[in-house]
Amino acid sequence: MIKRYLSSLALALGLAAVVAPAFAEEGESLPSAGTNVADQASLQRGAKLFFNYCVGCHSLKYVRYSRMASDLGLSEEEVMTNLNFTGAKFGEPVISHMPEASAKAWFGKAPPDLSLEARAKGVDFIFNYLNAFYLDPTRPVGWNNTVFPNASMPNPLWELQGLQVAVHGAAKPGEEAAVEKLTIAQPGRMTPEQFRGATRDLTAFLEYAAEPAALERRSVGIWVILFLAGLTFLLYLLKHEYWKDVHDSH
Amino acid sequence: MANAFSRIGDWFNERAPGLMPAYRKHMTEYYAPKNFNLWYYFGSLALLVLVNQIVTGIFLTMNYKTSAAEAFNSVEYIMRDVEWGWLIRYMHSTGASLFFVVVFLHMFRGIMYGSFKKPRELVWILGMLIFLVLMAEAFMGYVLPWGNMSFWGAKVIISLFGTIPFIGSTLVEWIMGDFLPADATLNRFFALHVIALPLVLLLLVVLHLFALHEVGSNNPDGVDVKHGPKGNRWNPEKPIDAIPFHPYYTVKDLFGVGFFITIAAFIIFFAPTFGGWFLEHDNFTPANNLVTPSHIKPSWYFTPFYAILRMIPSFFGTAIWGVIGMFGAILLLALLPWIDKGEVRSVRFRGLGFRIALGVLVFSFLALGMVGAGVTSELIPAWFPGADVTTWENAFGRLMVLGYFGFFVFVWIYTRFGFEKTKPVPERVTMHD
């Protein structure tokens, strides 16, 4: 009897483990972002990048500076002097100062709020998008992107990555040549490897911003599962004890 | 102490003499067959999830804002600023999906062991009504976060009513209270989701249990314990193969509850979106009537029925046939006691034809779920590069629609005209553990 229950528990968890990733992500698969939201140093580096390169245009309207400080292990002073450049109060959310009307005029579309971007698009999308900008003189702002073609956003991290250009394949008649690969035409301040690390940190920060509870839920979850597993075992023993009557009365 | 308890008991018995008899009838002297197996956990688990949905739902309504302008923000407020709000919301969202997991398994058990057959037709009908109300409840709850998939899902599902001839388009406006899903729609769905449908659901659940306790539970052997030999160690008048529900099945179900909530907790704490199946990516974007999600599809538990809708083509200039097919798929399930005329209940003693048909039903149902969720439209190009996806998907999907409806046609012919060769049903139940 106990063997059957143990094997069914193993079967159920094994099935969940097999099924969950098999159906994990819909849509075409991009290379994995490889982020780790439990890595606080990575989140801090990502936050630094976000507040230096992104907040000029993008808000995180659901993220408060104060909450971010405590989740990322930063003091109020560190956040207010190093990350908060908009003059917002510590308890206020992260709102970009760019006027929406000007944004529309400059980019054709107001830059979206990024609070939930990692949950709406997925971390793999963000990571690969940040690495896929290339110079394209045919676009209004001079940039294009292979992950999100014809994006209206220029590459904000160009001085880190350098200027990337596209190598086009042979064009079929009547069609535009497809982008075969991207190469760095003019190096930036970072090596390609460093830049991938930096965009991974930035992606991890956005993953955190999309679900701050993720940090708490995993650390609490382990204890909840352990408690429930123990409780279930006790309940099994209880059932076994009561059911001796039934088995005796065959 | 014991004296104090019995005095309190006496006080109640004098003033409410019906309480103890009711408790005995439904708990300590409700005799259930002793050979329930794994499949018999799902009834009590459904009740557990219902309680979870009501309790977590109450806490969610304390912070949710019922307006198109504020709903999405208020859900994020619950996720971030409300103490343990994320846990309450994940318990509710995971509970919704697990409700359907449990109910589908519970229904399958009923078909497999013939629990819907005489004298339990009323139990089955009430169960099917519960399933219908549950689907309406889940659909309206899905609209409340007012994400983009909430909006477009609502638009697609409500527009099904637009296929009804003559009154269709007026009916759609009447349901939405606007020309698009909007603030008025959200408010009425909230009212229906948090009070109207839960009341109906609770009433139906009580009736389902009362109806069951009148006729008694079936069992994996489909043996009629009530009409078998009498006399067990608790009562000489009661069936020999039955045991009191309390404490034997209450402790057994308690173990099932422990097992189940361990798995549920694993999802809630480590995979709350379940890879985009329990909480969808597109629903983390606010509702926007100008931006259509790339794939509009309902929640996973509606996908088999949604696939039937999609796979049945339009005839005579109307798309109503798909809608009829979708609701017909549920209606046929409700009519199963009159479609399946076989005398033998349990699959253990039924003919080979029934076993194969049951397998086909399960396979078609799961395959239709894959079609409705858009899995096949991704697998076909991956497995057969260059294939015409629409043609192949339609061919496969329509075959599965035939499989689903074919079950009911086959079972009727098979049992009505005496083709079924059953095995002899034993007089006593068997226990395997």
UniProtKB/TrEMBL annotation, chain B:
Chain ranges of the Cytochrome b/b6 C-terminal region profile domain: 235-373
* Pfam families assigned: Cytochrom_B_C, Cytochrome_B
UniProt key word GTP-binding: no
Cofactor binding, per record: Binds 2 heme groups non-covalently.
* Membrane-spanning parts: 38-60, 96-116, 122-144, 156-177, 189-212, 254-279, 319-340, 352-375, 395-414
Instruction: Tell me the domain of life.
Output: Bacteria
Cofactor(s) required for function per UniProt:
heme b
Subcellular location(s) of the protein: Membrane
Q: Which Gene3D superfamilies match?
A: Cytochrome Bc1 Complex, Chain C
Q: Which CDD domains match?
A: Cytochrome_b_N (cd00284)
Keywords from the named record? Electron transport, Heme, Iron, Membrane, Metal-binding, Respiratory chain, Transmembrane, Transmembrane helix, Transport
Where the record annotates domain Cytochrome b/b6 N-terminal region profile, the positions are: 8-221
SUPFAM superfamilies per the UniProt record, alphabetical: a domain/subunit of cytochrome bc1 complex (Ubiquinol-cytochrome c reductase) (SSF81648), Transmembrane di-heme cytochromes (SSF81342)
The membrane-topology field of this record reads: Multi-pass membrane protein
Q: Subunit structure, briefly? A: The main subunits of complex b-c1 are: cytochrome b, cytochrome c1 and the Rieske protein.
Family the UniProt entry places it in:
Belongs to the cytochrome b family.
Job of this protein: Component of the ubiquinol-cytochrome c reductase complex (complex III or cytochrome b-c1 complex), which is a respiratory chain that generates an electrochemical potential coupled to ATP synthesis.
Write the protein's name: Cytochrome b
Q: Which organism is it from?
A: Luteibacter sahnii
Source taxonomy: Bacteria, Pseudomonadati, Pseudomonadota, Gammaproteobacteria, Lysobacterales
